[in-house]
Design brief:
Blueprint: H1 8-18, E1 25-26, H2 29-45, E2 51-59, E3 72-83, E4 89-97, H3 103-110, E5 116-118, H4 119-125, E6 143-145, H5 146-157, H6 171-176, E7 184-191, H7 193-207, E8 219-224, H8 232-241, E9 256-259, H9 292-307, E10 317-320, H10 332-351, H11 357-360, E11 368-369, H12 372-377, H13 400-406, E12 410-411
Parallel strand pairs: 4-7, 7-8, 9-10, 10-12
Antiparallel strand pairs: 1-11, 2-3, 3-4, 5-6
Helix pairs in contact: 3-5, 5-7
InterPro entries: AB_hydrolase_fold, Fungal_lipase-type
Domain Fungal lipase-type: 179-266
Pfam family, one: Lipase_3
Length: 414
């Protein structure tokens, strides 16, 4: 049975956080995978009814490097009859992905917004084919950042090892192996970079016909705190394939959950006119007077995004306003201290769950542990703020397309 103390949205969000269970661990891939397999099922089992059925999978760009953490972590958990707020009970699978946990994610998945991939041209060749950058983007096509495409490709091709659930089965093949499943739901969830990757992966798999055994309306996403990863055509496609399912406050599906005081969700749109509530220019004044280093970092981010020659547009969102800091920051360090709180703690408060600290804290397991600064510096957007940049300016008029997409997002009282 479902956990009576947590509704379906809270359970899904909690599972998405469990994907970060080894985020502070440093070690080679084998040692991280062992720790992941030991810790994750125990954590998941503490939410009644859920069980890991695919994975978990840890992936590293340099598998033998003992001084870094995992670059990607993902898993699928199943609930036989999850209770939803409308009274339905459905067999439900949640695919969860960790947020940024390594320098690789900063360099590749987060920072590679300077070039883009044509989503459908890539998917025509297969989601398990490495994406290629499009150097001459065309109007009207759906584009995603190259870094996001690489992350989706890595997740799609990372099969569980023989010691994990569904060993050797890649994600698309896993869903394709299901019988006709008219009453089964699949939910993609992630926080931060995990939000960007899961929402894009869900759309990519849907467009690739990986979910042919499921009604399209039973494929849902529940991302939180993620940046924009595609242009307006991508955002419009996402809204069409994943229509917003409304509910009170955080009880929505197919929308990005956004804290207006979280700078990560303000990336990567460079034009305030087309997305006034979520754009890079909002970041310097989120907590008070702008700080020189933060302004410089944002300008660097704008340069990177502009190099793509597309304008990034956030997907539909439900936005809330986190509690502002008692005092405005005057240094870069003070700014980052506030960011860390706004990027996680305020979401926990808004969605109404306690931080799963007992499951996420790294104990002495014979592996290394990242410092708080190492963890924070790998977060999307936050990493860019460590870089002193050049500036880029320019704006265009908002079009009706942008305005109609803005209308899909809503603000809610905290």
């Amino acid at each position: 049975m479902s956990d009576p103390t947590l509704n379906a949205h809270q359970q899904v969000f909690r599972l998405s956080l469990f994907a970060n269970i080894v985020r502070e661990i440093k070690g080679d891939l084998d040692s991280i995978q062992i720790e992941l397999e030991n810790r994750l099922p125990v954590a998941v089992n503490q939410v009644p009814g859920w069980k890991v059925v695919w994975g978990p999978v840890a992936w590293k760009h340099k598998p033998d490097d003992t001084k870094t953490g995992a670059d990607h972590v993902s898993f699928v958990a199943r609930h036989p009859n999850l209770a939803y707020s409308n009274g339905e009970e459905k067999e439900t699978y949640v695919f969860a992905v960790a947020g940024s946990v390594s320098e690789y994610n900063w360099v590749i998945n987060n920072a590679r917004v300077d070039s883009v991939v044509d989503l459908h041209k890539w998917l025509e060749k297969g989601i398990t084919t490495a994406p290629k950058r499009d150097l001459s983007p065309s109007l009207g096509n759906a584009y995603i950042s190259y870094g996001t495409a690489v992350g989706v490709y890595r997740l799609a091709t990372a099969a569980p090892p023989k010691t994990a659930g569904s060993p050797g089965v890649e994600l698309a093949s896993y869903w394709a192996s299901f019988p006709e499943s008219p009453n089964t739901r699949v939910i993609f969830a992630g926080h931060s970079l995990g939000a960007a990757l899961t929402s894009t992966l869900a759309l990519s798999l849907l467009e690739s016909r990986a979910f042919a055994k499921f009604p399209p309306s039973n494929i849902l996403v529940y991302p939180s705190a993620g940046p924009a990863v595609g242009n307006i055509t991508f955002a419009r496609l996402f809204a069409n394939k994943f229509p917003k399912i409304s509910g009170p406050r955080y009880e929505v599906w197919n929308c990005m959950i956004v804290n207006r005081l979280d700078p990560v969700s303000q990336a990567w749109c460079t034009l305030k006119l087309i997305s006034p509530e979520q754009n890079l220019d909002n970041i310097p004044t989120l907590y008070g007077e702008p700080i020189k280093e933060i302004v410089s970092g944002v300008n660097m981010g704008k340069v990177l995004a502009a190099l793509s020659t597309v304008t990034y547009m956030p997907i539909q969102a439900v936005r809330f306003h986190g509690d502002p800091p008692a005092t405005s920051p005057s240094t870069q360090k003070e700014f980052f201290d506030i960011v860390w709180y706004q990027h996680l703690e305020e979401y926990l408060k808004f969605i109404g769950i306690d931080a799963p600290e007992s499951q996420l804290l790294v104990k002495d397991a014979g592996v290394g542990k990242m410092s708080n600064e190492e963890v924070t510096s790998c977060e999307p957007v936050i990493a860019e703020l460590f870089v002193l940049p050049k500036t880029q300016e320019g704006a265009v008029d908002a079009t009706e397309d942008y305005k109609s997409l803005q209308a899909l997002s809503v603000d809610v009282d905290k």
